[in-house]
């Protein structure tokens, strides 16, 4: 049994002979099942799939996941005279009706967007049919000349950067004297299912970069990307480099993969597998369903994300406690099928790392990105192993500062300064093998947020008077967190169920009422934007086909 396995911590598992035998049977069976899944005679890809399936099955069949096999739940039922079972049945019924049977990880409606989450004051300064651009209000008299542009992944909403107050990277950067912008991607409509990288790259990061530079007057901006947003940010920098264009001051990549080859260099999914997975994850609207993608990620860590909430809620009768990361993780957005398949195909053939990816007629060569990069990986990341992030960082052409935090995929991002914060930092250069870097890395007893601010400072130009939000061409409009982040008629079941009115109070400051924007319902083609409604939207700039 693993040392940190708390499923069998109840005294009955060590004192009651019946439970002792049950535990031994389960542990023996699970070890044999996982060992059989190693199957050295299978190709590496098939072996990984078999191991994943074996892990899911062994976690699902743990005896603590059912009432007779959970002594703690039986004791709770006896102590409460069955009240815990009644509560558990109510939790089960709620989850079946409202969550399609997925155990709740947090109570619905526990957070309010714009107040509890995504609460840093700011304004939408630009909107097109794919994204809103938010500029945050300054909180210092002077700011660095070079602004920051945060690029999110296209499966989750942007506010992983602006989580709860005092746990917000955006808030931290604003307080450190940076002019901060963030892209908020839209939950796409069915007629946008055919959009891919040729549309998203010009209309999201590149278009946002143009707006940021116009508003601030700075010729360059720092790009920050998390997970798939890191691939977005790095590709944008490489796309600009391919055209001899400036615009990017530095890259910050958080838990991001650019090199998808495994340690043995073998490739991954076939085209047939990609098509099958895309169909399985798609909804009736023709888009890849964000809720199904969330479930897929949960299956990577089913003990913590599925079975522990099930035991707590259904067997013990407890109500889940609010947790901001759970709220964000279940507040996903749908993804155009074309964009989703392109992303999987890039991972399958590793075309980004091998300079075979072309976007809008330009080859994406990461070695041409000569700007310095600040890279963060998590040693317990179950989605993108830190070794993958390390190999990805070596593809870039500038000086790389690589940081390894003792956290998972999301926890490593939320890293405000605290007494126990630390990370590993190596010496000069990145050796080919990540294990060689690890052997010489030294522990730094501080948050990587602190190191990041210190790293950005010399690369951000002189201090200038703080900037107001917006400009004459791009006036400040809707209060942050904007419109595209809010739940609509298809709002998420587990994420924030409520949103603060545009007239809400934000930290004691009353926001002005937001102007009324026309609907952004669209009709799009692969390379052109055709929407008559834009003619009736004088307060928004029409999207163009290029950046």
Question: What does the model show?
Answer:
With 547 residues, the protein is an alpha/beta fold. Helix 2 runs antiparallel to helix 3, helix 7 crosses helix 8 and helix 9 runs antiparallel to helix 13 (337-349). It has a 10-stranded mixed sheet with strand order 2-3-6-5-7-8-13-14-15-16, with helices on both faces. Strands 1-18 form a two-stranded parallel sheet. A hairpin with a 2-residue loop joins strand 19 and strand 20 (509-510). The chain has helices at residues 12-15, 17-36, 44-60, 71-79, 83-99, 169-175, 197-216, 228-242, 271-281, 290-298, 302-315, 324-329, 337-349, 386-393, 434-440, 448-456, and strands at 112-113, 122-127, 131-136, 142-144, 148-151, 180-185, 221-226, 248-254, 287-288, 335-336, 358-359, 362-363, 373-378, 400-405, 423-425, 442-444, 463-465, 498-499, 505-506, 509-510. Helices cover 34% and strands 14% of the residues.
């Amino acid at each position: 049994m693993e040392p940190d396995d708390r499923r069998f911590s109840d005294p009955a598992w060590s004192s009651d002979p019946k439970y002792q035998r049950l535990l031994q049977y389960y542990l023996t069976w699970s070890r044999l099942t996982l060992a059989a899944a190693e199957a050295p005679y299978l190709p590496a890809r098939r072996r990984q799939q078999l191991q994943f399936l074996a892990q899911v099955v062994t976690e699902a069949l743990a005896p603590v996941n059912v009432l007779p096999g959970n002594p703690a739940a039986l004791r709770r039922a006896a102590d409460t005279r069955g009240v815990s079972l009644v509560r558990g049945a109510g939790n089960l019924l709620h989850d079946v009706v409202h969550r399609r049977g997925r155990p709740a990880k947090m109570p619905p409606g526990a957070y309010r967007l714009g107040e509890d989450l995504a609460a840093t004051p700011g304004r939408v300064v630009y909107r097109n049919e794919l994204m809103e651009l938010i500029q945050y209000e300054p909180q210092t008299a002077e700011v660095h000349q070079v602004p920051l542009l945060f690029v999110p992944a296209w499966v989750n909403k942007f506010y992983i950067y602006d989580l709860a107050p005092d746990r917000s990277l955006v808030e931290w950067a604003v307080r450190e004297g940076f002019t901060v912008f963030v892209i908020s991607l839209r939950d796409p409509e069915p007629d946008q299912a055919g959009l891919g990288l040729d549309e998203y790259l010009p209309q999201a990061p590149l278009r946002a970069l143009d707006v940021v530079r116009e508003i601030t007057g700075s010729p360059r901006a720092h790009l920050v990307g998390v997970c798939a947003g890191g691939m977005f940010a790095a590709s944008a920098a490489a796309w600009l480099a391919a055209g001899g264009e400036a615009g990017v001051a530095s890259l910050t990549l958080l838990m991001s993969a650019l090199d998808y080859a495994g340690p043995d260099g073998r490739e991954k999914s076939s085209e047939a597998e990609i098509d099958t997975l895309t169909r399985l994850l798609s909804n009736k609207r023709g888009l890849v369903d964000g809720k199904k993608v969330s479930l897929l990620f949960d299956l990577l860590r089913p003990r913590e994300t599925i079975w522990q909430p099930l035991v707590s809620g259904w067997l013990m009768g407890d109500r889940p406690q609010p947790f901001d990361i759970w709220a964000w993780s279940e507040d996903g957005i749908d993804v155009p099928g074309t964009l989703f398949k392109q992303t999987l195909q890039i991972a399958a053939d590793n075309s980004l790392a091998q300079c075979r990816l072309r976007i809008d007629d330009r080859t994406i060569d990461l070695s041409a990105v000569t700007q310095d990069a600040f890279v963060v990986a998590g040693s317990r990341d179950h989605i993108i192993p830190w070794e993958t992030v390390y190999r990805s960082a070596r593809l870039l052409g500038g000086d790389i500062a690589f940081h390894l935090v003792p956290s998972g995929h999301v926890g490593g991002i939320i890293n405000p300064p605290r007494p126990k914060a630390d990370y590993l930092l190596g010496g000069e250069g990145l050796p080919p093998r990540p294990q060689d870097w690890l052997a010489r890395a030294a522990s730094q007893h501080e948050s990587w947020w602190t190191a990041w601010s210190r790293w950005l400072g010399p690369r951000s130009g002189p201090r200038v008077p703080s900037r107001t939000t917006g400009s004459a061409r791009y006036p400040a409009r809707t209060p942050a967190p904007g419109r595209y982040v809010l739940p609509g008629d298809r709002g998420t079941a587990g994420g924030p169920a409520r949103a603060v009115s545009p007239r809400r109070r934000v930290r004691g400051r009353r926001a002005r009422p937001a102007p009324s924007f026309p609907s952004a319902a669209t009709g799009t083609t692969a390379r052109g934007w055709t929407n008559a409604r834009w003619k009736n939207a004088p307060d928004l700039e029409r999207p163009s086909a290029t950046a």
